[in-house]
Structures are given as structure tokens and as C-alpha cells.
Write a structure and sequence with these properties.
390 residues, mainly beta, Methylamine Dehydrogenase, Chain H, 5-stranded mixed sheet, 4-stranded antiparallel sheet
Length: 390
């Protein structure tokens, strides 16, 4: 049944309301670790959140292993040094061996973990709905430090190298309305930026700035060096997802049936894509000429990166909150209809699907020809090349 935009706005009001704060100047930082064939160290693969994987996938992946947690898996995996790190609504961060799906360790928090972890310098960073950000030893799962916020953390952490090049900093938002920048080594606060409402997604890092949206319906452009705001750009509605960044622009969808491209230098919306009256929660993947994102209209959308003109749509039977990943000429995405899909980047035609049975709201992570994704049935799935017979 089609539902109108006002209906969704009523739902949105149950967790959002908004306004905005002040201004400062640019700073330069560097960020030198990118995803590779054997690592996917964070949500969307790297700090600009572009959702692009290296390598290739088999045309017909097979199920390699399953790992069962104690609750739905909305978190998306980080993969590094042969381990898969993923949160679950059972309150644990799970470390799983990539080769065979056997458990390595798990660390308990006091609430469900929807945040996707970040692996940085041998430490796994993740937020929990208990309001704490955890830094754990990647090999053993032991606690290195934790930092308290005043409300739940749903978005995934990001990272930068400090302007003087001496430290790594982690960035994450909280439902206490604040964006935090902490020293990755010991959790000491560098700065905190306050907004006027919940921060649901992950901040993107682009050109010495971090950019994020939230339930105040603004895109905030923050100088990474000092945490001062450079710009606040009206998005038009609540932003629940994360923006992808590249070439001075960011791309994100919002709650009122629009997907937008924002020119950061100009400080304004460059183009808008609007289709049916359903919101966008999915975070986009961006290629050199295309932007691909899911919608609550049960479709995967592909538009031109330059102008936002529609190229194709792919229909599923459930909302698409999962964030797609592009690998070569393929796009991988999950749906609430219980299926994991691979579609053609060229024309949006279905190439492969696997019926999990319960909703796939987790976003895929891809390394070395393997797809790792969680599902609402509490299971983490690995797909890849069919093993050769011995």
C-alpha cells in the first residue's frame, strides 16, 4: 500500500525535531588508510563513506558459513587481519574468523549494538545503545578504554589523522545531540560539537572537514582541527543516514522523499532527486559517475552523480535501509524482504539473490571476493566462491 509523505513525517516526529548553531575556518588533515582486497575496516569501507569495494565477486556466490548471535544483526561488519567484527542486538560485539566463521571472542555491553565497528591501529571502536563508546583490543577483545555520552550511539565511528600528524582521532555522534572527537589511543576529548537534535548516522570525512546530518534537518560542516562549524546547510528534512563524500560534494537522502547532492564550497544543494513519497535511510555508494542508494519505497535507485538524473531503479519486496556496496560492475544490497541481492551496475538487472528469510537491514562488507552481512534472524552470513573440491 502506498503511504503519503505526511504519514512518514508523523513517524519522524516521534524521534526528531530540530534547529542549529555558529562559524569558523578550514584546516587540513590527512587520512591515509583505505579499504583493500583483504580489509574493510569500517562502515562503507573508508572515511569518505563511498561504499566501494576492491576486487571482484563470483557470478554465483555460495554460502560459505553462518555465525549465530543472540539477537537481530543491524550492525554492519568491519573486516581486518582475517577477523570479522560485528555488533548484535544481543549486546555483544562479536569477532569471527573470516575463513570459517568460528568465534574468536565477544565483548558484552549493556545494550544492543547497531553501530558498525571501526578497526584502527589494532583497536576496534564501536558505540552501543548503552551510551558508551568502546575501544577494544582487536586480537583479544579486552577493553582499552570507554567514553560515556548521555544517550544511545547508533551511528558508526569514523577517524582522521590529527592536523600535526601525531595522533589518530575518532569521530562519532550520539542521541545526546553531540558529535564527539576523541583521541583514539586513550579516549581523551579533543572537542565536542553540539547540535539541536539526535545524530543518527556516521560523520563523513572530506577535505579537512567532517560532514554529518541529523534530526535537526541540517548538514553540518565542521573544521576537523578545532571542531568549529564552517557551514550549516538546510537539507529539507530529518537525516537518518550517512552522507558519502567526494570532490567537494556530499550525497545523502532524508526523511521527506528527497535525495540531495550538496556543494560544500558553495554551501548549498546542487541537485535534488525526488521519486515516490517514501524516506531514505540507506547511505549511498558513489562511483565516478553514479550514485546508488536504497529507499523505503522498496527500491534501489541509481542516479547520475553530476545532475541526479535517474538511470535505473531495482524493485524488491521490502524497504531497502541496507546501504549498497559497489564492486566492479556489481552492486550488493539487502532488503527487508529477506533477500540479499546482486544487481548490475550498468542497468540494475538482478544477477543473483539469496533468500535469508528475515529482513536484511545490515549493510554488506566485501573483502577478497567474500560478502559478509548480518540479518534480523540474528545470523551473520558469508558468501563467496564455491570451494574447490579436494
Amino acid at each position: 500500500m502506498n503511504m503519503s509523505a505526511p504519514f512518514y513525517l508523523l513517524i519522524a516526529l516521534s524521534f526528531c525535531l530540530g534547529a542549529v548553531p555558529a562559524i569558523a575556518a578550514p584546516a587540513k588533515t590527512t587520512n591515509d588508510v583505505a579499504p583493500g582486497r583483504t580489509r574493510w575496516p569500517m562502515f562503507r569501507g573508508g572515511p569518505s563513506l563511498q561504499g566501494i569495494a576492491d576486487g571482484r565477486l563470483p557470478n554465483k556466490p555460495v554460502l560459505l558459513w553462518k555465525y549465530t548471535t543472540g539477537g537481530p544483526v543491524k550492525s554492519s561488519a568491519a573486516i581486518d587481519h582475517g577477523k570479522v567484527y560485528i555488533g548484535s542486538d544481543d549486546g555483544h560485539l562479536h569477532a569471527i574468523l573470516l575463513t570459517n566463521g568460528l568465534p574468536s571472542w565477544k565483548h558484552k555491553t549493556e545494550g544492543p549494538i547497531e553501530s558498525s565497528p571501526l578497526v584502527l591501529d589494532g583497536t576496534v571502536h564501536v558505540g552501543s545503545t548503552d551510551g558508551l563508546h568502546y575501544a577494544l583490543d582487536a586480537d583479544k577483545g579486552t577493553l582499552r578504554w570507554k567514553a560515556k555520552t548521555e544517550d544511545k550511539i547508533l551511528g558508526s565511528p569514523n577517524w582522521v589523522t590529527s592536523p600535526d600528524g601525531k595522533d589518530r582521532w575518532v569521530l562519532f555522534g550520539s542521541y545526546d545531540y553531540n558529535l564527539y572527537c576523541l583521541n583514539a589511543k586513550d579516549g581523551k576529548t579533543n572537542w565536542v560539537f553540539p547540535t539541536e537534535n539526535y545524530i543518527n548516522g556516521s560523520p563523513t570525512v572530506i577535505g579537512g572537514k567532517t560532514v554529518f546530518g541529523g534530526c535537526d534537518a541540517m548538514l553540518h560542516v565542521i573544521n576537523l582541527a578545532d571542531g568549529k562549524r564552517e557551514k550549516a546547510i538546510e537539507a529539507g528534512a530529518y537525516i537518518a543516514g550517512s552522507a558519502a563524500g567526494g570532490d567537494g560534494k556530499v550525497y545523502v537522502g532524508h526523511y521527506e522523499n528527497e535525495f540531495i547532492c550538496v556543494d560544500l564550497e558553495a554551501g548549498k544543494v546542487a541537485w535534488k532527486y525526488s521519486d515516490r513519497a517514501f524516506p531514505y535511510f540507506s547511505s549511498p555508494a558513489i562511483t565516478s559517475d553514479r550514485v546508488i542508494f536504497g529507499g523505503r519505497d522498496k527500491r534501489l535507485h541509481c542516479v547520475s552523480r553530476k545532475e541526479g538524473k535517474p538511470i535505473w531503479t531495482f524493485s524488491t519486496r521490502g524497504k531497502v535501509d541496507s546501504s549498497p556496496v559497489v564492486i566492479g560492475d556489481k552492486v550488493v544490497v539487502g532488503s527487508e524482504d529477506g533477500l540479499l541481492y546482486i544487481v548490475s551496475l550498468a542497468d540494475g538487472k538482478e544477477l543473483w539473490s539469496y533468500e535469508i528469510g528475515q529482513g536484511v537491514n545490515s549493510s554488506p562488507a566485501i573483502v577478497d571476493g567474500k560478502i559478509i552481512v548480518g540479518a534480523d534472524d540474528g545470523i551473520v552470513y558469508a558468501f563467496g566462491e564455491k570451494p574447490a573440491k579436494k
